[in-house]
What we know:
This protein is an alpha/beta fold. It has 2 domains: 6-82 and 172-244, HAD superfamily/HAD-like (Rossmann fold), CATH 3.40.50.1000; 89-168, 2-Layer Sandwich (Hypothetical Protein, Haloacid Dehalogenase-like Hydrolase, Chain: A, domain 2), CATH 3.30.1240. Helix content is 34%, strand content 22%. The protein has helices at 11-15, 24-35, 48-51, 89-99, 118-121, 138-151, 173-184, 201-206, 218-223, 235-244, and strands at residues 6-9, 39-43, 64-66, 71-73, 79-82, 103-108, 111-114, 130-134, 154-157, 163-168, 191-195, 209-212, 226-227. It has an 8-stranded mixed sheet with strand order 5-4-3-2-1-11-12-13. A 5-stranded antiparallel sheet has the order 7-6-8-10-9. A hairpin with a 5-residue loop joins β9 (154-157) and β10. α2 packs parallel to α10. The chain starts with 5 loop residues before the first strand and ends with a helix.
Amino acid sequence: MPKYKLIALDLDGSLLQNDLKISAANRHWIKQAEEAGIVVSFATGRGRSSSEQYWDVVRPQAPMVVVNGAEVWRNHQELLSRHLLPAHAIPRLHKLALEYKTWYWAHAPGKLVRKEAWATDYDPQGDWLKFGMATEDSAVIDHLRDLVESWGEFEVTSSAPTNLEISKKGISKASGLSEIAKILEIDPSEVVVVGDSLNDLEMIKWAGFGVAMGNAEASIKAVADHITGTNEEDGVAQLIQLILE
């Protein structure tokens, strides 16, 4: 295998098992990669507040891409960049979620506000990173995706077939990893990424070695350079073993 310098891991459906835990095998092989001189980081749709419980799996110096690239951390303590939605975005998207009776949530720096807490926790004057909508009605999701994309104002993706995740235009896990590659002074060809959902698509196409989980959506597998095991089969550990051969 070529010499890679950075491995960026998606969390849900990739590094995390279905019980939202990280297996002993995945932990072991992450450490093996780090001992071989490879930086291991996360690239997740989760915000810092909901992903930080897993950060101890990698070294404190590791950069992090969270909220689908809306926040990029130089290391576990220092923020590198933050990409906010425009001020009008949340009221407009919230109105749409109410109109179509979807579940919804939004990420602010350091905070996740869900539908059930909206009345008390939503700050109309605050900064917002991402808005999400979810419903089991696939026709509604498809319509909302087409509608929001037609506005041309936002980046629209998803972490599951039943949801939409909406960020500032041009912001993605790939854009976040591009920022990290610059500060690490490495080329995309030296980066490995692992993911399973549509919000991983751009980074899988961007990286030198894009890896789809065995449980990934078909569109992700179609563009990946390699398909590893599922998140229940220690697919991340399998991939790292392959890289270190």
